[in-house]
Amino acid sequence: MPRIISPAEFQSAGTVSLARWLLGKVLVRTRRGKRTALRITETEAYVGEHDRACHAAKGRTARTDVMYRPGGVWYVYLCYGVHEMLNLVTGPEDRPAAILIRSVEGISGPGRVTKALGIDRKLNGAAAHPDTGLHLEDDGLVVPPRSIKKGPRVGVDYAGPVWARKPWRFKLRPG
After folding, report:
1. pLDDT at 66
2. At a CB cut-off of 8 Å and minimum separation 6, what does 54 contact?
């Protein structure tokens, strides 16, 4: 029986470690009585105001306010006016950090993930809990370190080479 991952589990541990840990966990979307459960295959970590690639680098705004909440809530925003992006807020209150869900099994790309699962900004600020229709589960799968590929984050060249090259993107290797 899969274990529902509590939002509280994302309120203290390091965001980069959690981004790695989320690989192999299950993203569960429930809407109109239908449950869709897909394994997370790629994530990216963003670690606060000092991280120039993080939305919080410009401080607290109406858009980023959700990132300053205690971890375990969803941060959903519109990218390029086209794609909704799903992030999980991590860390304690007033320490903005989040993990972008880049891919799940069978769906590659963060915009495609949200589109396929019907995720939009209505979930922004909602808890990662079954009551909200979007939560995480751990079914006991252990992902060995050799099965994880690390690399630089995608689409953040604007942050400068130091931050753009941080190896904070994690992906399950095929097979």
Report:
1. 97
2. 46, 47, 48, 96, 97, 98
The pLDDT tens digits of the residues spanning 82-131 come to 899 999 999 999 999 999 999 999 999 999 999 999 999 999 999 999 99
Rg value, the chain, Cα: 15
Q: What is the CATH number of domain 3-172?
A: 3.10.300.10
pLDDT score of 175: 66
Retrieve residue 110's tokens.
Answer: 């963060």
Structure tokens, 96: 């903005």
Per domain, the residue ranges of the chain are 3-172
For the chain, helix, strand, coil in percent to 5 are: 25, 35, 40
Q: CB neighbours (10 Å) of residue 87? A: 23
What gap in Å lies between CA 50 and CA 52, rounded to an integer?
A: 6
CA distances from 123 to 49, 134, 157, 173 (A): 23, 8, 28, 30
CA distances from 149 to 44, 84, 118, 125, 166 (A): 12, 25, 28, 30, 13
Determine the distance from the C-alpha atom of residue 129 to the mean position of all C-alpha atoms in its chain, rounded to a whole number: 14
Collapsed DSSP state (helix, strand, coil) of residue 57: helix
Structure-block tokens of residue 128: 């990662």
Give the H or E element holding residue 172. Answer: strand 169-172
Say if residues 148 and 171 touch (Cβ distance below 8 Å): yes
